[in-house]
Amino acid sequence: xxxxxxxxxxxxxxxxxxxxxxxxxxxxxxxxxxxxxxxxxxxxxxxxxxxxxxxxxxxxxxxxxxxxxxxxxxxxxxxxxxxxxxxxxxxxxxxxxxxxxxxxxxxxxxxxxxxxxxxxxxxxxxxxxxxxxxxxxxxxxxxxxxxxxxxxxxxxxxxxxxxxxxxxxxxxxxxxxxxxxxxxxxxxxxxxxxxxxxxxxxxxxxxxxxxxxxxxxxxxxxxxxxxxxxxxxxxxxxxxxxxxxxxxxxxxxxxxxxxxxxxxxxxxxxxxxxxxxxxxxxxxxxxxxxxxxxxxxxxxxxxxxxxxxxxxxxxxxxxxxxxxxxxxxxxxxxxxxxxxxxxxxxxxxxxxxxxxxxxxxxxxxxxxxxxxxxxxxxxxxxxxxxxxxxxxxxxxxxxxxxxxxxxxxxxxxxxxxxxxxxxxxxxxxxxxxxxxxxxxxxxxxxxxxxxxxxxxxxxxxxxxxxxxxxxxxxxxxx
Length: 478
Description:
two-stranded antiparallel ribbon; mainly alpha; about 475 residues
């Protein structure tokens, strides 16, 4: 079998080495909290303004489209995660179904996704934190609140973004169960704050604010200023707001009862968040003309403040400051597990696949990924990070849809604890929907994505293909 088509069997994937097995400590409440914590974050607190600038009031439709595509992907993830209860998410499923080289591409894309998501959310959090400090009269120097790249007012470093990455990394190093418990508490704070925003904004709902509903059209187009606009252009960016559920699948190996709990965690968190997003988006665009809040770094707090409720604005901003780190925690958790599994498989140096005996978690890998994310967060702007993170995620979701179809065809008799309904439609829906969203991304983002993966393929050909377990004969190819 050619190196690019080598596959690991599901039995090999789920037979863990002594000393590199992650400790199962989580149940379904932890997983739902992890999913909601990952999904509800910068996408609704910050990117709703970016989306409204591209789609106008039809940003609600953008949320529905992006969420609909993610439902297909979530169902595919739920089936594969319960059938292959190992860390690694789409990378692991691709290794079993699509072959080693494609698994590398997906793993490399996931590294891009998770690194940039954490960095982007850190930048979004920093915007709320800076606004909060300003409102209290404790503002930081402008040079320390923005990076030198991708911003209209370049600074030296985004110090708050770097700081929050360090804090969350420290939480994760305490241990999986401890950090999951803290995450669950913060998720409640975040959801309560969003409910308070809806309660404040809904009474100001004015149908006139929804007209014209679709000022920039449905498909992606270029406006007079050279900016990509339209419902689909917004959906391609807002997609960032939904895909946190895939972080749940990275917890498969650390779940006590993966056959039941992973399905509840993945699908349940997705459904809860779709409802929250639609309510918040409707309240936001209905309460005032979208152009008024579209350019704000803290749109929800801005809306509450403009509606005359300064106290509520401060509470919402404060809740974002406290609770947005749940997104950082979920994705930093996922990133460290992706890195860990790739190292365990030999795709990356195996010395990195070490589990702390005391904590039962990959402390070394968590520290390595935190440094990488802190550097990115300190130097780049939110919009650029979110768009490129979406490209990596869309590639992973396409692979998950394909893996679902391939394994259904090739291994129809294998036991599946959860079966995606109408699996051909679910698989095809995830693939085609994600491809359409990818085409709707900015062209510069697509180019950067392909450059990233071209560099990744060089690394695979020079290092990974010679050092995997299958290459060294430690396991027979499936």
